[in-house]
Structures
1.
Amino acid sequence: MPGGRAIDKIRLLDAQTVNEIAAGEVIERPASVVKELMENSVDAGADRIEVRVEDGGIRRIEIIDNGEGMSREDALLAIRQHSTSKISRIEDLTSLSTYGFRGEALSSISSVSKVTIRSRTGDEEVGTELVTEFGSEPELSSVGAPVGTTVIVENLFQNIPARRKHLASAKTELSHIVATVTNYAVIRPEITFDLVSNGASLRSFRGPDRVSRIAELVGPKAAKRLTSISKQVDNVEISGALTKMDVTRSSPSSIHLFVNGRPVASPLLLSAIADGYGTRLMRGRYPIGYLTVTLSPGLVDVNIHPTKREVRFADPEHIRELIAQAIEDAFSDEDATPRFSDLMDYMKIGKAPEKLETPRLRPTVQARIEAEASESGPLSFPFEPLFQLFKTYVVATGADEDSVIIMDQHAAAERVQYESILRSLREGERRSQKLLAPSILELSPDERAALEENIEHLQALGFGIEPFGGGSFRLVSVPVVLGEEQGEKALKGVLDDIAKIGRRRSLGEEIIWKVACHGSIRAGQDLSRAQMRTLISDLLQTSNPYTCEHGRPTMISLRIGDLERLFKRQV
C-alpha cells in the first residue's frame, strides 16, 4: 500500500503442515502404507510377513514381521522426519540396494493416522510400544512382544477430510493392497506372505521360488505354459518367466515387473515385452508372469517419483532391446498349434480358454519340413489337404497319424504375405510391378489424409503412388508379392480401414500388417486342392507358422481322442 507496510506474502509453514504435505507425496492410499511397511519388514530381515486389513485398509492396517526388531531408541527415532538406517551421506543414494528409508515412511504415515509400533530385538527381554496420533508427541511403554515388529495404522487421513473423501470404496482399496502384496510375494519367494481382510484369509504365499508364486496366482494349468526368460549382457541381467502365446489376458495387470528387486510400473518394459513376442501375440492380449531387470544402481534412477513406482534408465533403448531379444530367443522354437481337446475343456463351463496345450510336430516330420524348406523348389508336403470347410477352413492330415489339422485360410495367408513383404524389404528384392493401366484413386477426404500421412511407408512397400492434380492420386505400380489385382485391393482396403477408425497419423510397421491382411486369401473364398496345398506349404516355411501377424492362431490340431471324448467313447 502507498505510504504503508507491504503485506507479507511468503511465510514458513508449521511442522505439521509440512509433514502432511510430505505424506501426501508418499502415502496416496492404504496400499501405499502397506507397501512402505512391508519394505521396512523386508529390510529388517523378516522371512514371515502378515498383512491384516479392515475396510480395505481405510480403518485399520496391521503389518506383523519376524525381522530383527527395533530398540526403544530406534523406534523413537524411526518416526522422526529424515531419520533412516539406509544412508549416511548423499553419495549413498547411487548405490542403495535396500527398499527405502524406514523413518521417512513412518514419519509420513504417523502424520496422517494413528500409529502403534510394537517391537523387540533379539537381545532384549521386553519390547517397546510407541503410540502417536496424527503427528502428536509419541507415548512410550514397555510391553511383552516377540522378536520382530508390528505396526498398526488406524483411521488413515481422518485428520485430512479432503484426502479421505477421495479414497475409493473399501473393495477397490483392497484390490490395490492385494496387488501390492502379490508383487512383493513374487519378487521375494524366500519370504512367507499372508494377507487377511476383515478376519478372513485372502492370500497365502508359500511357494519356494518365483515360478511357484506365479503358479499360486494363476493355477497349475497356466503355470505349465510358463517359459523361462534369461539374458545377461555386461552389467544388465534379464530374467523371468512368461506364458506362451496361448495363455493371455486382456490387460497387462498379470505381468509383474521388477527393477533391482523393486516392483515398478514401466510402459518401457511392457513395450519391450510386446516387441519380444512380436506377431506371435494377438494384439490387445498380454502374457502372464514376471520379468525382472537387474543392473548397477547407478544405471537406473528409482527416485523420480516419491513412491518409487517409476524408474528411469540411463540407456532405455538398450534395456528395451535386451528384453525383446531375450523373449524372442525364448519363444523362437515354440510350436503354438492349439489342441482342440483343450478348447473342449472350456466348452463345458462356457468361457474362453486360458490355456491351450500345444503338441510339437513329430521329430521325423519336423526334420522333413526343415530339410525340404532349405532346398529349392516347393515343399513336398507332410500335411495333405483333405477338404475345405465352410469356405474358410482347410482340413489336412496332421503331424501324427491319428490327427488332422484345421487351418484358418485367411490367418494362414496373412502370415505368408506378412513374411513375404518383410523378406522383400530386408533382402532388397524388386518390390514393384508396373500396372498395365495406371489406376486413378477415388478417395474420400479421410482416405486422402490417411494416404498423405502414410505415403512414404506405402511407397517403401512397393506401391507406386503419384499426385495427379486437384488432390487426386494415381496408382502406377503395386508390390510384386501381392500382384496386380490383390495389390490394388489391398491399398484401397488399408486406406478404408484407417479412414473408418479415424486414424490419420503415420502408422509405420502397422501398414505392413494391414497390407498383408488385405492382400490375403479371404474367408468365404473357394480354394482348389492345389491352392490349399500351396497355402499350407508356404505357411510351414514361414518363421512363425502358428499365428497370423495379429497373433491369432492359424491352425488347431484335432486328434482321434478328441472325437472319442465328444462321442463319449472315452472320458
2.
Amino acid sequence: MEANSPLAHERRWWTLAVLCLSLTVISIDNTILNVALPSIVESLSARGSELQLLIDGYTIVFACLLLTAGSLGDKLGRKGILTIGLALFGTFSALAAFSTSATMLIIARALMGIGGACIYPSTLSILTNTFHDERERGRAIGIWAGVSGLGVAIGPLAGGLLVEHFWWGSVFLVNVPICALAIIAGHVLVPTTKRDPEHALDPIGAILSIVSLMALLFAIIEVPDRGIADPAVVISFVVGVVLLTAFAWWETHYEHPMLDLHFFQNPRFSAASATITLTFFALYGSTFLLTQYFQFVLAYSPLKAGMLTAPVAVGIMVTAPQAPKLVERIGTKLVVVTGLSIVALGLLLYSVEPVMASLIGGGAVRLLFGVGMGLVIAPATESIMGSLPKAKAGVGSAVNDTTRQTGGALGVAIIGSVFAATYHHLITVPAGLPAAAGPMVHDSIGAALDAITRFDLPAAVAATVHDAASDAFFRGMQVAAWVGTAVVLCAVFVAYRFLPARAADAPADEELEEDAELAASLDDGMLT
C-alpha cells in the first residue's frame, strides 16, 4: 500500500493511530524511568552522576543517531526503518530489565537509543507523507504531539504501579509487548512512502555529530563531581567544540550532507527548531528533578509520585490538539510566544517551596506548565515539517526530533549539573557519622538516604541527615528552576523575534498546493 494510493488516504487516520502507538513507547520510556530511579539507587547502588548518565546515555545516542536514521528512512524506506527500530527497542528493553549493575543498565539504555532513533523520525515523516491536505496535516501533528503528552502521563503512573507491585526492571519489560503490537499493526495499516535509493549517506557527518555531542555532554555532567578545571572535563569540552565546528564545516562542503545547513536560512525552520530545543530543555530537566523531589524529599510512593507528574501531561494532551486551530486564527508566533510565557511562569513557580509541597498548588502549577508546552509543541513541529519539501520529510522529522532530544539531554545535563553543584555546595554533613557515610551524604540525597539504612543510623542522627539533605536538595532544585526559567525566556525572545506568524514564502508552499490537489483528487476518485 503506497502512501499516495486511495486506500492509504482512506486509512490515513488508522495509520496515524499506529504511528501514535509507536511514538507512545518512546514517550512512555522517557518518563517511566524517573519514578524507578530511587529503586535503582537502592538495588544497583547508583551514584548521582550515574543517574544522569542513565537518562542521558539513552538520550545522547537517540539524539545523535536521529539524523542518520532519518536519512536511512529517505533512502531505504521509512516503514522498514520504523519496524527495525521497534524490534531493536523491544530487544534492548528486555536486556535493560535484567541488568545487574548500573554500568550494564546504562549500556542497555544507550542501545535502546538506537531503536528509538529509528522510530521517532519515521513516525512523523510517514505522517507528513500520508496527510496531503495542509490543514488536516496540521491537526494530525497536533494529535501526534498530544499523544506524546499521553506518554508523559502514562509513564510515571505505569512506572509507579510496576515498581510497587513488581521490581524496577518491569519499567523496561513493559516496552516489549507495546513494540510487538506496533510491529504487527504497522505491517497492516502503515503505507510505504517514496524513497530515494540514489540518496547518499553521510557517515563522516554522523560520526562527527555523535562524538562532539557525547564529548560536550560528558563535560557538563562531570563538572559537579570533577570540577570545571579538571583535565578530563576541559579536554572533553575542547574536543566537543572542535568536532562540532568540524561537523558544521563538513556539512557545508560535502555534496550530500546529513543535515543541509541551508535549511536554517528559513526562519520557520530555524526559529521553530531553536524554540523546541529550549522548551524540551526545560521539560526534561524539570521532570528529572521533580520525581526525585516527590520521593526523596516528600517521601511519596512511586505511584503517588507518578500521579503528581500527570498534570503536565494532561495539559499537553488537552492543549496540543487544539493549538493548530488557534494557529489558523492568530498565527504561529502568538500561539508559541504565549505558550512559552506560560512555561516560564510555571518553571518560576517550581522554585516556590510552599507551592510545590502542596498537592493542590503544585498540581495547578504542573497543569499550567503542560498547557504552555501543548501550545508550543504542535505549532513549532508543524513549522519545521511545513517548511521542507516532502522528499526531505525523513531528515526534517529527524531535525525536529534531534532538537527535542538534544534539548532534553542538555536539560538533564545542565539543570542536573547546576542542581548537583548547588547541593554539594550547600549540604552540611552532620558530625559523628561513620567514615563511609559522610561521602554518601555529600554525593546526593539518594545516597544520603541509603546511608541512613545501610549504617542503621540512630533516629536523631537519621533525622538530621534527612533534613540536611532535603533542604540542600530543594535549594538546588530552586536554582535549577531559575536557570530553566531564564532559558525559556530566551526561547520567548527567539520566537517573538524570528518565528513567522504564517507560512508565507516557505520553500514547501508549491508542494503543499500539489498535496492539496492530490488529496482532492483522491477524494473524488473514491466518490466515483
3.
Amino acid sequence: MPPWISRHEATDQSVVEKQVELLEFNMLEQGFSPIDIRDVAITMEQSSKGDTIVLAGIVEFLQLMLQMEDKSLKPHVFVTKEVLMASAIHYAECTTARQEGVYDIVREAIYQDQSHNWLLPADLSEPRLVDDPILEYFEKGSRKTTGAIILVESDGLAERSRDGSYGDEVSRIALGAAKVKRAEIMAQTVLTGRSWTKEESSKLRGLLLSVMDDWKSLGIRAVACLYRLDGILDNVDRGVMPYIRTPEMVRAAREAIRVYAPLAQRLGMQRLKAKIEDSAFRVLYKRQYRAASALYQHNGPAMKAMSRYLEGQITHILLENDQLMSQLEDIRITSRVKEPYSSWKKMVKKRFIKPSQSGLEGSPQRAIALSSPSSSELSMVDVKDGVALRVILRARKHDSDEPDETRARERLLCYYVHHLLRTQWDLLDTGEMKDYIQFPKENGYQSLHYNSFISSQGQEWPFEVQVRSEEMHRIAEYGVAAHWDYKLGNQNAAALPSLELCEPVRVQGDVVNEVEVSLPVLMPPGEDSYIGALVTAKDELVQNKVFVFFASSAAIANEGQILSLPVGAQVGDALEELETMIGSKLEIREGSHNLKIMKNGREASGDDLIGNGDVLLINHQSPC
C-alpha cells in the first residue's frame, strides 16, 4: 500500500492556526457548544503531538466530517463531539502506523515462519491489549512498532481511557475504527495489492461489517476513504502530481466504489455515498467524468426545478383528495435527481454510450474518451428516471389489531394513488408501468413504478413515480431488498447469510406464479432506520459467517484469496473451498511432506477451527 498522499508537506504554522480557527467557527455554526469545541481542540493538539503537518491533516479531516453530516440520518446523529475526537485520534494513529511501515510489518508477519505470531489475531473482532507480546517481538527484531496501533491498542489511548481523559465513548469509537482499519490492512496485504473483484468486495464488506463495534466507527472509515480520494485529486489539481492512472489510484478508487460507497449507503449516509462515487469516478475516468459533469451542469438545474415542481404538484393533488386522506394515517412525498455517476451508469446500461466510451467497469482498461459529436448528442433527458418522485403511505387502522387487513388496504391505496397520478401525467410510452406489488422482485422488493413526462419550452422531460406503502419502503431501504449485492447487481450474496422469503416466489421465465408472500424484515419492528437495520444485519452475519484470508503462495498461483465460510468451519473446510475457487487440488492433508498449512504463523491441522480474519498460508517444505 503506498503512503497516504499528504497535502500538508510544507504547511506553515500560522496557516494551520487559521485552519483550526475556521474549524472551530464551523463547529459553532453547526451547534457545538464552546465546551465541545474546547474538548475537540485539546484532542487534536494531544493527538498531533506538536507535529504541524499531522495537525493540519486532522483539521482537514474533521472539516470533511462536518461536511458529510446528513440530516436524513435522524434520529441518529453521526458527527458528534465524541466522533470528532475519535476521528482526530484515529487520523494521528493511521499517520504514525504508516510512517512506521505497518504494511511491511504485516507482510513480514504473514510470510515469516514464526513459532508464534501475535500480530495475526485469531479473531479480528477481539481487541488487542497494550501488553500484547507483539510489541516485544518486533522490538527485539529492531523494528519499533509502538505507534503501529492500527493492529494493537495504543498505549496513549489506553492510558487516557483508564484515567478518563477521553471518555469511554471516544475510546470505543476510536478503537472500533482501528479494528476496521486493521481488517483493511489485512485485505490489502493478502490480496497482493491488486484491484478487488466484485465478489471479493462483497466479502470484504461482510468482513468490515462483522468487525464493526459501533456504526460511527464504520462511518469514520467511509469518510477516510473519501479523504484519500480527495487527496489524490487535490494533488492532481495543484500540479503536485500528473494525472496518470497508477495501479494505486485505480485500487483506491475501485475500493471506494465497491466497498465504501455501498457501506455508506447502508449507513444511510446518502451524501457521503454520492461524494465517494463522484470522487472515485473522477479519479478513474477523468474525461468521462468531465463529460458527465458537463451534462449534469447543463441539465441539472432544470431537472432540480422540475423535481421541486412535481413534488409540490403531487403533494397538492393527494392532500386535496378527501377520500384518500380519510384512509391514510400518514403520507410522504420525496424527490431526487440522479447524480452524474449514477446517470452515466444508466446511460451505459441503456446503451446510449458505447461500452468502449463509458469508462465504467466492464469496458476496456484503457477508456476511450467521448468525441465531441457523441457528447453533444447525449442528454440527461435520455435517463428516464433522472428525476424520480416517491410516494410513501401508511393506511389508517380501523382496529388496533388488524395487520393483514391494513396491509391489504395499503396495497389498494397504492393503486389508487397511482391512478390519481396517471390521470394527471400519462405513461411516457407503452411498457413503462412496472407492478412490483403484484409481482414482487425475487429479493422481496415491492413498489409501483411508472414513467411519464412534462413539457417545457418545447422539451419533453421524463420522470419516474414510485408508490409504495411504509412497510414496503422499510423492506426496500433497510431489509432484504436493500441488500447491497442487489444494489450492485451482484448475484453472489457471499457476504451475508442466506435470507429467504418465508414463501419463496416461484418464477417461470418472466411470469410470477405466486404473489402472496410473507416478507421478512431484517430488524425488530419499530427500528425503521438504516442504523437499526445495519446492526441487525451485523448480528445475523456474526452468527452465521466467518471470513478467512489465504495469503498468496506458489500453491495458489501467487494470488491471495478471501473466503466466506459458515461459523464453526475448520481449516480443512477452508482448503476445500479454496480448491473449488482455484479449480485444482492442493493435496494438502495431514502427513504431507511437501506442503504444510500455517494459520496465523503457526502450523495447523485440518480440524483446527478458523476464526474471523484468520490468515492461512500454504508453505513449501524442503524434503528431508
4.
Amino acid sequence: MKQFACFGLDTANQCLLRGGATVELAPKPFAVLRYLVEHPGRLITHDELLDALWPETYVQPQVLRTYMLELRKLLGDDAGQPRFIQTLPKRGYRFVAQVTERNGVEPGTAKEAPASVAKSAIIVGRDGELDRLHSYLRQLEDGQRRVVFVTGEAGIGKTALADAFCRQIDPSLAASVARGQCVQGVGGVEEYYPVTEALNQFCAGQDGRRAYRILTRRAPAWLSQGRGETAASVAAWPAAQDRTLGNLCEALEEIAAENPLILVFEDLHWADDCTLNLISALARRRAPARLMVLATYCPLRGEIVDSFKGLKQDLRLRRLCVEMELAPLKKAAVAEMIARELGEAELPARLADFVYLRSEGNPLFVTAVVEHLIAQCVLVRNGAGRWEQRAAFEEMEAGVPDQLARMIEMEIGRLSENEQHMLEAASLMRVAFPAWAVAAALKMDPAEAEDGCDALARRLHFVLRAGQDELPDGSRSAFYVLAHGLYREVLYQRQSEARRARRHIRIAARLGELFAGREADVARERAMHFEAAGDRERAASVLDAASNQKWQAGVC
C-alpha cells in the first residue's frame, strides 16, 4: 500500500482508496497514477510513461492529458497549484506529494531502515487525547456541533492523532470525513484553499455522491469542477467570487443531517482569513448540527497566525471551541514507540533512555534519532535478525539527523535576519541564555536584546522565558532556554567558526566586566567561551588567575 495525503494506492488489489473507501478508477488511469506514485519527485517524460504502459504500441500522447485531467478531478488537484501531479510543459509530469509505504518507508531510499520507522500509523501515549476526541464525536448525536483545535510543536504528532482518530471512528456512526491542508504561501494567494480541497476530494470519493448533489444544489460555486457534468454545464456554474459563507454552511449542515460530518483542516497556522471566517461561522451558528471541525496548528507566529490567534481567543471566550495541546511523550511511551518501530519487545540496553534524552519526547525526533543510530551503524541487526547495539551511543557521529536538521533550518529560515542572529547567539550558551549574553555577542543594546528575546519567546515554541537574574551591578537581565538541544545544535553549527569565535570572546569579555573583582566566580564559564573560540591560552590563563585568587583569599 502506497500512501499520499489522505489517499492510499492498493497495488495488490489495483484500487485507489480515500479514507478507507474505494474511489472508482479505470485500469489505465490507475496504471498511470501507479507509475507516477512509484517514481515520486522526479520528471517522468511523456515517452517514458508511454513506453512503460503501452510497450510496443503506438499511442497518441494526447491520451496522457486525458488521463491526467481525470486523475486531477478524482484527487481534487489543481494544475495551476499542484499538490499531487505537476505538469512540466513539453517534458512530462512529476508526482510532487510525499509518498510512503504502509510501514512509512519512503520509496527510493537506499539505506535500510527499520520495518516501521516513520510510521504515521504508529501512535502511542495518546489514549487520553483519543478518548476526548471520541467523546466530542459522540456529542454530535445530540446536534451539538464541535470545533476542536489540536496544537503542539512541530513533530509532536498532531497529524498522527487526527489520522488515528479518523481510523478509529465507530463504523456504526457512518460518519463522513473531509480533509484539507493549509499550505504556507498559498493562504495569501488563494482563498479557501483547504476548504475547496476538502470538498472536492470528499465529493470525488464513492461516499461523496450525496454531498456532491447537495453542494451542487445549495452552493455550486464551492465546487471547482462537476462530477459527471458536461463542460458546458460546468461553465455555466457560478464563479468562485460568487461563494457565500451562508450557502456553504447550510450545505454542510444538510450533509451532516443524515450522518455526522467531520471537517479536518491541517496546519491552520497557514490558513487564509476567509477559511478562518468559515470556521468562525460554523462555530457560531445556532442550529443543531452533527458537524465537527478538527483543526491542527503549530504555535508559530506571523501575520496569518495572528489572525488565527484572534479567532481562537474569541471562540474560547464564547465557549465555542476546545483546545488540546499535545505534550511530549513520556519515557515509557518512547520505549513503546521504539519497540513497535523496530518490531521487537526487548530493546538493547540504554537505547530507550538515550533516544528519550535526545528526542525529549518528540515523536518525530524519536524516529529520526533511531534512523540516525541505524545509519551510523550503532544499531544493527545481528545474524539472528534481531537489533543490537554495536557501539557506545557516545561514539555515534556527532550532529543532528538530516531530516531534523532540514526541518529546523526551514523553521529558522522563516525568521528575519536579526532574529536568526539572536538565536545563533543564544546557542553559544550551554543551557539557559541571558539577554545580556545575546547583547554582548551581537554588540546590541541590552534593553533592545531583551525586547527581542521576549518577542522570540512569545512567537516561537522552542524559546521559553525562564526567569530573571540579578547582576553584580544591581541591574536585572531576563534569561531564556531553548526547548530542544537539537535546535541549539543546528543554530550553533550554522555559524561559521570565525563568527562563533568572535561571539564567544565577546561574551567572555562581558562576563569579566560584569564580575570585575569576582572573576573567580565565573572563571570556568569564561574559560569555556575562550576554549570554544579556539583561544586555549586565554582559557588556561583565566583558570590559573581564578586559582591564584582563591588561594590568596584562603579558599585553597
